[in-house]
Amino acid sequence: MTGFYSAFIVAERRKEARELWENKFRKNAEKVYDLILEKIEEYPLQELGIRGFKKNSPVIFLLNYASRTKQLDGILTRLGTRKICADKDKCVQYQKGVEHIGCCSRDSYRTPDIAGLIIMQEIEAKRKGWENRHGNFCKYLSSDGCKLSLFKSPLCMGYLCSRLEGLLLFAGKNGQNFCSAMRMVKCGIPEIGERTLFHAMDKAIEYGNLILGERN
């Protein structure tokens, strides 16, 4: 019982510390967002740093995460996945009778294990003209697709429905490797850890670009 109680106290203290950090972070979140945008443009896909922040700072994680999600979102867009997801006639989930766009019918964008991500999502979406809507679908889903491209959750970024996986597997070995890497991305930090997540994202970017190169 003592061990359980001690673990409970530790968990509560971590929760309190996290809440304090996020409350402080929210006050400067707009500036952090602008800084991340600036750094992404300067140094695409590297282990990025910002003067004044420690390497293990959540801000540095968000910077490195966003640099990868930006490239992955661009690859998926060029592969045509957005069009397939937005087309009710092509969406497998919609054809099964799921209302709206099936894969986005819940709040998978919520990723409490990544500090500051939900705050960054709100800022990114609002700057793209997003207005919160109510319904049985993700609040960031709009008529032109997801409003997020930099700060999507790992689950949303890595998710490929059976139709998309089937189409990508036609790309041969590169397609298979891309799908495997995206499955790892979907697992997120709780299951595979930060370094493995970044490695999986890098591999997905590598194989995604190879697929696009074969198409050209």
Fold and architecture overview:
The chain has 216 residues and is mostly helical. Helix content is 63%, strand content 2%. The chain contains 11 helices and 2 strands. Strand 1 and strand 2 form a beta hairpin. The protein is globular. The model has no long low-confidence stretch (mean pLDDT 78).
List keywords for this structure.
216 residues, 2 strands
The best one-word shape is: globular
Quick one: biggest sheet? 2 strands, antiparallel
Order of SSEs? HHHHHHEEHHHHH
Question: Which whole number gives the mean pLDDT?
Answer: 78
Layout of secondary structure:
Blueprint: H1 2-27, H2 29-42, H3 58-79, H4 81-86, H5 92-95, H6 117-127, E1 141-142, E2 145-146, H7 154-158, H8 162-169, H9 173-187, H10 189-192, H11 194-215
Antiparallel strand pairs: 1-2
Produce a short descriptive summary.
By secondary structure, this protein is mainly alpha-helical. The chain contains 11 helices and 2 strands; from the N terminus they run ααααααββααααα.
